[in-house]
Write a structure and sequence with these properties.
2 domains, 19 helices, 71% helix, transmembrane helix
């Protein structure tokens, strides 16, 4: 690793996986602990448009877990500065587009497949609004980020802003009183347990990976501590689908590496986290834990009845579903199960069943194509280049996908924007590090 001493002389020491010491922990030191000349020089080398675009991206990422309206404001500024940058530097954007054109092609196919159910919707204007919000604009942020910068450092700053945002939201969980309607489950700034759970599904694989692969004892212990704290909060959050998704994703991550003492240590920490969390959970969370081992939930739960109704919609409208934006009305007026107790639900609490009922095969194929591509691309690149960043992308994507089996996280704007910023920063970051002969085995 290259690290800069106080007299400015570059010394060669033990290699770190991020050049110039910009791992997560050294970045805290880089930004907070006084090595400001590096950061200052970096911004001085950027022109006004590049600096403004980066600043807006970082602030958009930072506020994503804290206040979505502020994040949306910076998202608008991101688009404004990007258009100006495109007008001024069309050739640069064209060059970057060629590097990432497969992502644009896959996302275009996905958007088209999700658009087709609009044409069969009872209210085409409502359907267009749902399509533009859910399947078009959130992913555009990802595509714009892919094209915005020419080296790895800006992408790392966006990634770092996301990690800080989630950390601040996690700290807020300790001080914000849980809402009574959620039975005392911790929720963070957004006030909804499934939103915090979505953020956790995306970020936790990063800390899992760091805890497994970090060679420096202090950093390893710190990552284990982060894992412990975040997992306890996730238990207190009470989202069962996220519990199962995080557990399964961690097992998948272990498969990328040889089992060793350190792997067993992390497993022990996870088990301890769940145990400690269980001791202090509310009655609501405790009861949700018990349902995981109850056969009753798999036969008569409200969610199972909801999925049966979605499947009936699919049987009646196999190709394009009942139409975008029409799920709630169709469910309440035509497809609701006689045994259902919650009769005003407007979503299927599952990406798969929401798409089957609302968008049919067209929507489901588009969804599976997009996330299947992201999983396959990251896995293939890991096997080819052995860069740990691809493990983080793969497991974060898998974890979010698995949570989506029992929750309609596609419909949570904050979660999906966070995810698109996450992968939008990590994919180009890995490419530019590789082009500069830097091997990122550990963030």
């Amino acid at each position: 690793m290259c690290c800069k001493s106080q007299n400015g002389v570059m010394q060669r020491g033990k290699r770190e996986d991020l050049n110039y010491g910009h791992s997560l922990f050294s970045t805290f030191g880089w930004i907070i602990c006084g090595n400001k000349m590096n950061l200052s020089n970096f911004f001085k080398r950027q022109n006004f448009l590049e600096s403004s675009l980066l600043l807006c991206f970082c602030l958009c990422a930072f506020f994503q877990c804290i206040q979505v309206k502020v994040s949306n404001l910076f998202q608008i500024l991101v688009y404004l500065f990007f258009v100006l940058y495109l007008i001024k530097n069309p050739q640069e954007i064209k060059t970057r587009f060629k590097r990432f054109q497969i992502f644009f092609l896959i996302y275009l196919i996905y958007a088209i497949l999700e658009f087709l159910p609009v044409l069969t919707s009872p209210d085409i204007f409502i359907a267009l609004g749902v399509w533009s919000r859910t399947y078009l604009m959130r992913g555009v942020l990802f595509l714009v980020l892919l094209l915005s910068f020419k080296n790895w450092r800006p992408y790392f700053l966006v990634f770092f802003s996301l990690v800080v945002s989630f950390s601040v939201d996690s700290i807020a969980c300790l001080f914000i009183d849980p809402l009574p309607k959620f039975g005392g489950r911790v929720t963070g700034f957004f006030g909804h347990p499934m939103v915090y759970a979505g953020f956790a599904c995306i970020v936790l694989p990063f800390f899992f990976y760091k805890a497994l692969q970090e060679n420096i004892l202090f950093k390893k212990v710190a990552c284990i501590a982060f894992c412990f704290a975040f997992l306890v909060l996730l238990v207190l959050n009470g989202t069962r689908g996220a519990w199962l998704a995080v557990g399964a994703s961690f097992i998948v991550m272990l498969l990328f590496f040889k089992f060793s003492f350190k792997s067993l240590l992390i497993v022990f920490c996870i088990a301890s986290s769940i145990g400690v969390g269980s001791l202090y959970t509310s009655e609501e969370v405790s009861s949700r834990m018990k349902t995981l081992t109850s056969s009753e939930i798999y036969l008569k739960s409200e969610r199972i009845l909801l999925w049966k109704s979605s499947y009936k919609m699919f049987q009646d409208h196999p190709f394009f579903g009942v139409g975008l934006g029409a799920y709630g009305d169709q469910y309440k007026n035509k497809y609701i199960d006689n045994n259902a107790k919650e009769r005003n639900l407007t979503r299927a609490h599952s990406n798969i069943f929401q798409l089957l009922g609302e968008s049919g095969l067209s929507g489901l194929i588009g969804y599976l194509l997009l996330f299947g591509f992201l999983l396959l691309n990251s896995f293939r690149n890991f096997t080819k280049f052995k860069q740990g960043i691809y493990v983080v992308i793969f497991v974060s994507t898998l974890c979010l996908f698995l949570q989506g089996l029992t929750e309609y996280n596609l419909g949570h704007s904050a979660v999906m924007k966070f995810y698109w910023l996450w992968v939008g920063a990590l994919f180009p970051l890995s490419l530019y590090l590789r082009n500069q002969n830097e091997n990122w085995n550990s963030l």
